[in-house]
Amino acid sequence: MIKVHHLNESRSQRILWLLEELGAEYEIQHWTRDAETRFAPAGLKAIHPLGKSPVIEDGDLVIAESAAIVDYLAQLYGQGALIPKTDHPDHWAHQQWLHFAEGSAILPFLLGLYVGKLGEAGAPLGPRINSEINNVLDYLEAALEGRDFIMGDDLSAADFMLIFIAEIAQSSGRLKERPNLSGYVARIQKRPAYIRALKAGGPYSFAATPSN
Ligand SMILES: N[C@@H](CCC(=O)N[C@@H](CS)C(=O)NCC(=O)O)C(=O)O
């Protein structure tokens, strides 16, 4: 059975949501952030050398990196239904979205988090970080015009990656004037599988409608 190493308040929530959508059997090993540093417990390094979450185990296979995990689960347990086939015209656009979340979109948010800890010393970087966050969000906002999900009417593997970006943007008040993105988050957060995943995962304050 698939085992998900799940850290509270983290990206691994996207993996739980995917597994619930797929109806796959899985178990969760819960890990809790240090209350002060917010770091993952050192024990996670025994599962994977980076000591980050998500990590999954499936038999002898151990996979880190959420895009790789989403790709693996969608291909194996979703019979490819969430990924346009390699000869489909949408295949590479989907690949781009699948990797955009962790490859580019998250970076300015993380910079904001770390630079924010420098206080006044980090202030000169603020405008560039802010404009890069807006760059990412404006791109997503435009891509979602007239679409329920990133590839159109139906969920795809990339949505499981992008939801975390949309949720952290919403939690920092950046979706107020981005109706396509805020509609996207609301649409996803009311899905029964998403709600089941929230219950299974425990604390996740990026969900605007917790545990309903
Ligand atoms: N790009 C990686 C990022 C993994 C990552 O940084 N996970 C965070 C949780 S959101 C983590 O484990 N943080 C705890 C720590 O760094 O100690 C992925 O998408 O899986």
Summarize the structure.
49% of the residues lie in helices and 9% in strands. It has 212 residues and is α+β, with helices and mostly antiparallel strands.
How many distinct beta strands? 4
Distance between the termini: 28 Å
Beta-sheet strand percentage?
5-15%
Rounded mean pLDDT score: 95
Q: Strand order across the biggest sheet?
A: 2-1-3-4
Decide which structural class fits the backbone. Answer: alpha+beta
Largest sheet data: 4 strands, mixed
**C-alpha Rg, in Å?**
17 Å
Please, how many domains?
A: 2
CATH fold name of the largest domain, please?
Answer: Glutathione S-transferase Yfyf (Class Pi), Chain A, domain 2
Bound molecules: glutathione
Quickly name the level 1 CATH class of the largest domain.
Mainly Alpha
Helix content: 40-55%
Query: Are there runs of 5+ residues with pLDDT below 50, and where?
Result: none
Report the total helices.
Answer: 7
**Pattern of helices and strands:** EHEEEHHHHHH
Q: Based on Cα principal axes, name the global outline.
A: globular
Specify the CATH architecture of the largest domain.
Up-down Bundle
